[in-house]
Each structure stands twice: as structure tokens, then as C-alpha cells.
Design a protein that fits this description.
Blueprint lengths: L23 H19 L3 E3 L1 H10 L10 H14 L3 H12 L10 E3 L12 H9 L1
């Protein structure tokens, strides 16, 4: 018997939406949200500009609240995990692509004044959601 859709054991995300089924604009918004979460957790010299980030998400045609659930949230988490594989290079990429003079969307990431690191156990979801609000 041929199945046209994957089962939950092989990749289906909550509520039946598969990662490949996410519209491109939501997928890109979720990837940016994952990058923002990564930067806020791991790049001590950078911080995200919450208003600029939300404006960028809206300009993609996505309500920032949509990234907080289902497949877009899983995409954001997967993106964050991918950036964690090489923290120094990913922090450099954040500046290059989204820093003050970024090539893609300038001003998403700003220089951060020295401050304490995130508390141990801080979850990516909390960091991204705080940014979205």
C-alpha cells in the first residue's frame, strides 16, 4: 500500500503539517526567528532589535505570533540547533547578514553592552518568544 503522506514516525509535525508543507515565507520567518534565538543565547557581543525583527517578519507576510506554534516553531528550533554547530562562525554570519550593515536585512542585530550570560537552562523558545512580544 502506497502512502502519499508521511506518518508521525517519519516526520509529520504537530497538527499534521509537514516541514515541507510550510509556505516559503513562514519557513524563512521561522529560520530568522531561530537565528534571533541563537544570537540572543550565544553571541555575547550582539543582541536582537525586537521591533526591527518583528517588522522583518511582518514584511514577509507572517504574523510574528504564527512562529510560536506548530511547524514554524519546529523550524525555528531546527535552525537554532544548526547554528549551534559552529557558534563563532554563526555569530560572524549574524553580523554579516543582519548586523548594522547587513547584506540581507540590516539592523536585526545590534552591538550589545557587556552583560551577564543567559541563565543556565534558558530555553530557546523563551528567548524567541520574549523577542516576539
Amino acid at each position: 500500500m502506497h502512502q502519499s503522506r508521511r506518518t508521525s514516525r517519519t516526520g509529520r509535525t504537530p497538527r499534521g503539517q509537514e516541514a515541507g508543507d510550510i509556505p516559503a515565507e513562514k519557513r524563512n520567518a521561522a529560520k530568522l526567528a531561530g537565528f534571533v534565538g541563537f544570537v540572543n543565547l550565544h553571541c555575547s557581543a550582539l543582541k536582537s532589535d525586537a521591533e526591527r525583527f518583528k517588522g522583518a517578519i511582518r514584511s514577509m507576510g507572517v504574523d510574528p505570533a504564527e512562529i510560536d506554534r506548530d511547524a514554524p516553531m519546529l523550524q525555528a528550533r531546527a535552525s537554532l540547533a544548526a547554528y549551534e554547530k559552529d557558534v563563532p562562525a554563526s555569530c560572524g554570519e549574524a553580523v554579516e547578514l543582519f548586523g548594522q550593515k547587513g547584506r540581507i536585512i540590516p539592523g536585526i542585530f545590534l552591538a550589545r553592552c557587556p552583560s551577564p550570560s543567559p541563565r543556565p537552562g534558558t530555553r530557546m523558545t523563551a528567548v524567541v518568544l520574549t523577542t516576539l512580544r
